[in-house]
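Team,

Forwarding the record for the chain on the shared tracking sheet. I've put the sequence and predicted structure together so nobody has to dig through attachments.
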Amino acid sequence: MLQENRSPLVRIWDVARHEFHEVLPPTIFFLITFHIILLDRALMLREYGLRLASVGAAAVMALLVAKVVLVADKLPFINRFPEKPLIYNVVWKTIIYVVASLLVHYLEHLIPLWWRGGNFLEANDDLWREIVWPHFWAVQMWLTVLLFVYCAARELIRIIGRDRIAGMFFGRPVHGVSGGTESLPLLPRR
């Protein structure tokens, strides 16, 4: 009832704010990790100066992957194993995100060729000939590992709770959790 009395502008603002809060954590995670990949690549190639275009590309890719993750989260089958140990959902979601990001990564290379040539099939043939496959697969391997870490962290946060995790990281140390010799009790088997 209170929702109905609010102006359309306020409702639009609420939706925009909610979407921003949803996209912020994966964007920050992938922004940091893609810049680590970029730095790794620069060091491996002995390019010690980072080019602005590369930094911009890493930021754009972080935004794209974060959006892919959020769109994939809307799929009805994304949370397929809620009653199983967390590793099931972590691996399942990692696979879905990797497939979705592989498609986006491929399209990222295909669309400029298609735009220039005007023919989809020719652009696809050019891409298959011109793409640097070792680089493409190196990025995909990095992305798979990063997506696995992201999924694992997200599932832990979902189960333990955002406030409790924030308290563990930024609050007072929890007895038996912050590096002592004591360990957390094991959860009962289902």
